[in-house]
Amino acid sequence: MRVPPRMGQTNATAWRGFVFLGFSGFGELQLLLFALFFSLYLVTLTSNVFIIVVIRLDSHLHTPMYLLLSFLSFSETCYTLGIIPKMLSSLVMGGQAISYEGCAAQMFFSASWACTNCFLLAVMGFDRYVAICAPLHYASRMDPPFCARLVGTSFLSGYLFGLGMTLVIFHLPFCGSHEIQHFFCDTPPVLSLACGDTGPSELGILILSLLVLLVSFSFITISYAYILAAILRIPSTEGRKKAFSTCASHLTVVIIHYGCASFMYLRPKASYSLERDQLIAVTYTVVTPLLNPIVYSLRNRAVQTALRSAFQGRLLGAG
Predict the structure, then answer these.
(1) β-pair type (97-99, 179-180)
(2) Quick one: which of 36, 114, 54 has its CA closest to 80?
(3) How many angstroms separate the CA atoms of 265 and 270, rounded?
(4) Which of 18, 64, 177, 253 could serve as a FRET partner for 136 with CA atoms 20 to 30 Å apart?
(5) Which residues contact 140 (CB under 8 A, 6 or more apart)?
């Protein structure tokens, strides 16, 4: 990759790269951050892979709820693989360069997987709606072909929206600073480096973000409105608690996921703050992917039982 020109040069054709400066101001704390983020990343990666493998191998978990959970774990794993290794490298080696094409690819994949996560969470909300509001028809409505179509639509929609966001940003010329004040090629910091009138691109990103977040979140809201009505009709307190407990983990992940995403992408460019945005970005790139296996899965008794069985089977096999 050619070294980008210095600040102030206007030859966009000569500028084919960017440099991440996300944690350059932390000095000696960078090694401490590396140890922290690396540990969290290992836990996230290991936990998500374990969940995928256990759900795959345990026939008792071959239900729509857990199969959808395995796809969410797969999506979260791919999302973190596209961001965190480069971030860890920057913490150890300082400001890391990335090619123009590499930055576009990273933005495409990170945006695609993030959008896919939104749609998968909406599908999981629909799954809970059918399970609670129409339990006698659950097996017939959430049959494997229908689940496959829902998952396929989520992935395809995520890729299309990710491609749209990337094209909206990278059709602009870049002729100013090549230093990205962030640790990956997210849309707000990259857009801030573009030349000319960025208003139409900002509007395009806002519209695409609104479509992803509002459509999927509206779907979740409608599902939970019906779920709440069904739970309130359950006569016993114990029955209501049991029904709500099946949704609590999903709601926790939804609130954190949509809260961070809405703050980052549904606001005007004038309200951007480098320090605050990086803190929020760490939350949804490092912390939120960890919540899927911990909050949603590892607290689930069926998954815990499957994990214990898998470990015991492995130990017996080794013995």
Answers:
(1) unpaired
(2) 114
(3) 12
(4) 253
(5) none
Burial of 18 (0-12, 13-18, 19+ CB in 10 A): buried
Q: Which residue has the higher pLDDT, 283 or 52?
A: 52
| C-beta separation of 129 from 220 below 8 A | no
The overall average pLDDT reported for the chain is 82
Q: Which amino acid is at 39?
A: S
Q: Using one digit for the tens of pLDDT, what is the confidence trace for 138-153?
A: 988 999 899 999 999 9
- pLDDT-derived band of residue 256, with 50, 70 and 90 as boundaries? confident
- Quote the tokens at residue 202: 């900002």
The three state secondary structure string of 129-197 is HHHHHCHHHHHHHCCHHHHHHHHHHHHHHHHHHHHHHHHHHHCCCCCCCCEECCCCCCHHHHHCCCCCC
Q: pLDDT tens-digit profile of 203-255?
A: 898 899 889 988 999 999 999 999 989 888 888 888 788 777 777 778 878 88
pTM assigned to the model: 0.85
Alpha-carbon dihedral sign for residues 161, 163, 165, 168:
negative
How far apart CA 58 and CA 67 sit, in angstroms, is 11
Residue 267 sits at φ, ψ, to 5 deg, of: -150, 160
Residues 6+ apart with CB under 8 A from 198: 172, 191, 269
Question: Which residue do the tokens 């090629």 mark?
Answer: 185
Structure tokens at 264: 């980052």
Tokens of 124: 């999981």
